[in-house]
Amino acid sequence: xxxxxxxxxxxxxxxxxxxxxxxxxxxxxxxxxxxxxxxxxxxxxxxxxxxxxxxxxxxxxxxxxxxxxxxxxxxxxxxxxxxxxxxxxxxxxxxxxxxxxxxxxxxxxxxxxxxxxxxxxxxxxxxxxxxxxxxxxxxxxxxxxxxxxxxxxxxxxxxxxxxxxxxxxxxxxxxxxxxxxx
Length: 182
Fold this sequence. Notes:
This protein is an alpha/beta fold and 182 residues long. Helices cover 33% and strands 27% of the residues.
């Protein structure tokens, strides 16, 4: 399956990500792609429990964006958050609804995109929510499998919730996203 993902789609208010935060994620992802030599429209392979080819587009960046995201570890991670939000929407019909608290072993809560905001926020139906753990790698396709395994172990911290987890590891160099359900 072939899809188009535009990073500017993060520039809208969402239930779990503000437009301001989304713009930062989009900029971080674009800086990370450009840092390894990719241009807007780059083809990214999605592998794992979901299979797809996505074309990722973004608006041209100014020189200041690169300086803003000079800490490439931070850019890679924040960009991966944005890409993961777009990937779960496009491929799993899920949407990010809330940031997880520290030390839970995952980054975000996601829920079915077709549920109303009212239904998602109602704590009486938590079993419909899922966990989302995200990571990013600037270059190193060979490290993808070990990072996915590490992130699976990390979600063990919250396995007592008995709620499925989705793990997405983005590698910008190839580029590729490994997307698995746990």
